Amino acid sequence: MKRLKVAFLFNVRHHYPDPNDLRNQREADYDDPQTIDAMQSHLSDCGFSVLPIEADENAYAQLRENRGAIDIAFNYSEGLNGLDRECHIPAILEMLQIPYTGSPPLTQALVLNKGLTKDVLRSHGLPVVPHRIYHEKAEICDPGLVFPLIVKPLSQGSSAGITNRSIVRTLSELCDQTGRVLESLGPPVIVEPFLEGREFSIAMLGNPPKALPPIEPDHSKLPEGYERIDSLEVKWIFEESSEMSNYLLCPALIDDEHWSVIEGVCHKTWHVLGVRDLCRIDLRCDAHGKPYVIEVNSPPGLLPPEVSMTSYFPLAARSAGISYNDLLGTIVETACQRAFASRGTKHA
Ligand SMILES: Nc1ncnc2c1ncn2[C@@H]1O[C@H](COP(=O)(O)OP(=O)(O)OP(=O)(O)O)[C@@H](O)[C@H]1O
Ligand SMILES: [Mg+2]
Fold first, then answer.
1. N or C terminus: which one in the chain shows less Cβ crowding within 10 Å?
2. How far is the CA of 214 from the centre of ligand 2 (A)?
């Protein structure tokens, strides 16, 4: 039987993210060459014929040249340039009528913008905290600010720009941290209330989606002096170190009532944003335990176990008894079923 031809689209990192150098964090969402190689091998192990394509400026030409041979694209790209970069490859794939895994361009552009995502969710009655967007420091003069706040780049992932200094408790700290992020990663910056309660990350898979077992970072395990957030230092240094074993709890212990609220919020978030196939939704609770959506990750990180045992989506899958290869296979199968059912033929 002919093997399914899968074009694997990815972005490669050239610098490991450095908590002390914000400029160096621009590629945090990309993957190391060994991760890309490993993912490619796993896709081959799933029985696919894999065509690797780096999602750079040459991607369009390569996809156009090979479109007749490609059955489906595995879109693991983050995009190269601009605030809407995660929609570039899906838009190209739509133009070339190549089916692909994951969400369409509008969803991809939206979820990379943490402010607009929350505006849309809020308009559908979903729980999100209020936020402010700043393009320059001079805009910060709001007497209504209630501290503590958290300062984040509007359109980054993997905690780029989110460090131990991101929680601010005074106007002067807010100005300083906003300035730092603006200078290094560029505008805009999003500022929102700091939620001090439990944090959950929910991997969602399928059409309609199923929530995989919830992940909870145990902030009480963080060393003295570290803010209780999944900052760059935490994700890129502590999570990977042996001293932080068991930092990520999966499945997190959540009582049924709380879980049904969280699951309901995640399902509605998925539908409102037009997500397809897979995503990971990050939520955090306030002091009373009420969960709020912080952000939506699409595509979510999918590092193989030999590279990282703390990559969230594969961790949640393992906890559900789904091996890494089965996870990749399920993503492709899910996307094929959706794409071919709705389109009727391969490239129609
Ligand atoms: N409003 C908030 N209140 C409390 N903590 C927050 C808030 N926003 C973000 N955080 C903390 O900062 C971390 C990173 O924030 P966020 O998920 O927005 O960044 P990211 O870079 O997109 O992350 P990812 O690695 O999931 O792509 C969260 O996991 C959480 O610990
Ligand atoms: Mg997050």
1. N
2. 14
